[in-house]
Amino acid sequence: MQSRYLFDKVAIVGVGLIGGSIGLAANDKSLVREIIGIGRNLRTLEIAMEYKAVQRISTDYRELSDCDLVVLGTPVNTTIELLPTIAPFLKKGAIVTDVGSTKVKITQEARDILPEGIVFIGGHPMAGSEKKGISGADQYLFENAFYVLTPDRNTPKDSLDRLKTLIESFGAKTILMDPQEHDLSVAAVSHLPHIIASTLVNSLFDFENSQKIALLAAGGFRDTTRIAASNPDMWRDILMTNGEFILHAVDVFRERLNEIYEAIKDKDEKHIYQLLDRAKKLKTGMPANAKGYLPQLWEIVVTVPDRPGIIGYISNILGNEGINIDDIEILRVREGEGGTIRLAFSNEENQKRAAQHLTAANITTRTGIGSG
Amino acid sequence: MQSRYLFDKVAIVGVGLIGGSIGLAANDKSLVREIIGIGRNLRTLEIAMEYKAVQRISTDYRELSDCDLVVLGTPVNTTIELLPTIAPFLKKGAIVTDVGSTKVKITQEARDILPEGIVFIGGHPMAGSEKKGISGADQYLFENAFYVLTPDRNTPKDSLDRLKTLIESFGAKTILMDPQEHDLSVAAVSHLPHIIASTLVNSLFDFENSQKIALLAAGGFRDTTRIAASNPDMWRDILMTNGEFILHAVDVFRERLNEIYEAIKDKDEKHIYQLLDRAKKLKTGMPANAKGYLPQLWEIVVTVPDRPGIIGYISNILGNEGINIDDIEILRVREGEGGTIRLAFSNEENQKRAAQHLTAANITTRTGIGSG
User: Fold this and answer.
1) pLDDT classification of A322: cutoffs 50, 70, 90
2) How far is B201 from chain A (nearest CA, A)?
3) How confident is the model at residue A135 (pLDDT cuts 50, 70, 90)?
4) 8 Å CB contact of B337 and A328
5) Cβ atoms A149, A164 nearer than 8 A
6) CB < 8 Å to B205, chain A
7) Taking CB atoms and an 8 Å cutoff, what residues of chain B touch A135?
């Protein structure tokens, strides 16, 4: 009998940030009948259940035997170790997918280890959070995010379509890549920046008087090195798994770094400008993404005196007029609440109306156009 | 007769982002009797006056002849060109300061060009904005920001004290450095990150299929390369003026980059971990700053359905209870307004009370501790 669900029973093995978010996102839909959380740590599973990321929990892999979809929410190295453990329990025709940040190795391992009749499709959601574990799980984590899948030519079309349908129901955009293409891509856009950010921090503290120097670090340094604060265990594993592609990416980076180094050394103004200008144009042309593909936003910057309750005051003025605030950001915080606040609206009319009503309430506004 | 003001007449030459913000910050105080904006472009000056950054404007440098303080708000190279132009008009005993991002060259030039009896004290406010020009000026720009001054042993103590008093009245923290120390410091914390960010963008687009690769760029790449979108004219000038220190900083960076490169090549797990862990610890120990020295903030993450007016709704609940929101950030924006919102409070009690009242209003909350 054909089930009225896309998947009758889904197992999430490893209900952390990503696994938990998948559970929350899938829970909300009518596509899955039942979601079970499986893992070794009962306490973690219980928390996942409190968060409603899964409907049932178990530490027994035999629960996998009637699952149509098994999501391995574990880090790359754990996932590789898990494959032989779960292999004996999998149902014929089941789809197994992972969420690891590299794809070549896991795809090879899955091909070698999983029995005939099991469909492995590697996955990598391009979404994350600074928070770790289930407490960072968010049912909207994948909205507008890209989600890479790495099928090969033996992947049954029907299995791929079902997995795509589920993932796209989370609001994600699926991209198909082969594992090599994926691993080189993430080496360039994710692993290289990580190495660079860590190296920037490490080199800053190689200078004499580094503590005094660090006082001068402003927004530029802070943003450029933000990801250096990530989990070193996870990143060591990534750098170990994707070394070959990462070394290639570092080579490409070093060549460009040498180029600007020589231009500065030669005091070659034109060449320096050309390199900075190329970067600016390429950067500006890139899709803004971490918050999803936001359209252009119409902004108002509000300068307010230090006064309690000012956010509520401003949003009330706009709320009473039925004007939606699409984004709000406190640009400068002073001792109490207040300072400079950026408001963004999804269209010019709302921006104009908001500016009128705020001005009428004696709030200083300036308008501009930004992007999310 | 001793004026009852710290400065009787202040000239701001070049009323852009920084000059304009100085005007706004000084305007608010009782320390300055009159602020005049001077420049070549009358239209720009008129806008500065509309913004109330200055009280009078002029395109005539003769206005400098009765000024006690002359603030050169122009970029480094323009400032160097300006010195001989303004030199003949300066009043004996006047203080001249600049806001340029390097200090060795301008200090030498000022010593050579300005007449005896004029006190030049280089300045560099560690504050900025992505906005350019007067439209980004903000009277609170310097609050909690560091502001470097580079006096030398000939600087009269009284002049330095007066300038410090004015700058600290903006809410800034002054740091005294010698020009060399300053230029090496900013090479390490500001210019090097800029080169690195531009180089990351440039190298990404050296890969084959770079357009498809760019689709995978997430928050890490975006943050690490954010400053690559800055003005290439300004940055070419900075890289030209501070080349020597920058090359040294790049050398230090390259040595650390080689170290992690070799560790990845040798698959030396321990060494990779040690480098990542050092960076994480150093980064985590650094003062958060671009928004000033914020104390630890107590956070609540709120997950809300897509519903208009939700920000106003939440801030009303808290406002009615007299609970200040110290920071608010929309973490994920969906099509309309809503998604996940981070609220931060300055103390644990407010965090707890806020969580109670939001929960009572059926809003899902999670608490945590972050830092500004």
Assistant:
1) confident
2) 6
3) confident
4) no
5) yes
6) 282
7) 366, 368
Q: A313 contacts in B (CB within 8 Å)?
A: 319
* From A188, A276, A284, residue closest to B213, measured CB to CB: A188
What would you measure as the largest C-alpha separation in chain B, in angstroms? 75
Segment among A106-120, A122-136, B75-89 with least mean pLDDT: A122-136
Average pLDDT of A300-310? 68
**Residues 6 or more apart whose Cβ sits within 8 Å of residue A50:** none
A372–B333 CB contact, under 8 Å: yes
pLDDT at residue B192, rounded to an integer: 97
pLDDT at A333 over 50: no
Question: Which H or E run includes A198?
Answer: helix A192-204
Q: Determine which of A45-59, A104-118, A342-356 has the lowest per-residue pLDDT on average.
A: A342-356
A7-177: CATH topology: Rossmann fold (3.40.50)
CA distance, residue A205 to nearest chain B CA (Å): 8
Backbone φ and ψ of A98, nearest 5°:
-125, 180
Identify the burial level of B20 via C-beta atoms within 10 angstroms of its C-beta, where 0-12 means exposed, 13-18 middle and 19 or more buried: buried
- Beta-bridged to residue B70, according to DSSP, are B11, B96
Residues of A in contact with B202 (CB under 8 A): 256, 275, 278-279, 282
ipTM higher than threshold 0.90: no
A143, A170 Cβ separation under 8 angstroms: yes
Q: What is the pLDDT of residue B325?
A: 80
A206 and B333 in contact by Cβ < 8 A?
no
Q: Which of A52, A142, A198 to mutate to test the interface with B (most CBs of B within 10 A)?
A: A198
Contacts of A224 in chain B (CB under 8 A): 193, 196-197, 223-227
Cβ(B94)–Cβ(B67) below 8 Å: yes
A48: which 2 tokens? 């996942």
Residue B346's pLDDT is what?
74
Count of A-B CB contacts under 8 Å = 416
Per-residue pLDDT, B223: 85
A138 vs B291: which has the higher pLDDT:
A138
- Asked if A280 and B135 come within 8 Å (Cβ–Cβ), the reply is no
* Residues of chain A contacting B123 with CB distance shorter than 8 Å: none
Q: Which CATH superfamily is domain A296-371 in?
A: ACT domain (3.30.70.260)
Across chain A, what does the average pLDDT equal? 87
Residues ≥6 apart with Cβ < 8 Å to B21: B53, B127, B137, B138, B139, B141, B142
**Helix, strand, or coil (residue A298):** strand
Map residue B59 onto helix, strand or coil: coil
Closest partner residue to A189 (CB to CB) among B199, B217, B231 is B217
Question: Nearest-CA distance from B156 to chain A in Å?
Answer: 25
Q: How far apart are CA B14 and CA B71, in angstroms?
A: 8
How high is the pLDDT of residue B82?
Answer: 96
Q: Which residues of B touch A133 (CB under 8 A)?
A: none
| In chain B, where the domains are located | 7-177, 182-285, 296-371
Q: Which residues of chain B have pLDDT under 70?
A: 1-2, 28-29, 128-131, 287-297, 305-309, 330-339, 367-372
Contact A199 B260 (CB under 8 A): yes
- pLDDT number for residue B230: 86
State the greatest distance between any 2 C-alpha atoms of chain A, in Å, as a whole number: 75
Give the CATH number of domain A182-285: 1.10.3660.10
Q: Which of A135, A236, A272 faces B236 most closely, judged by CB atoms?
A: A272
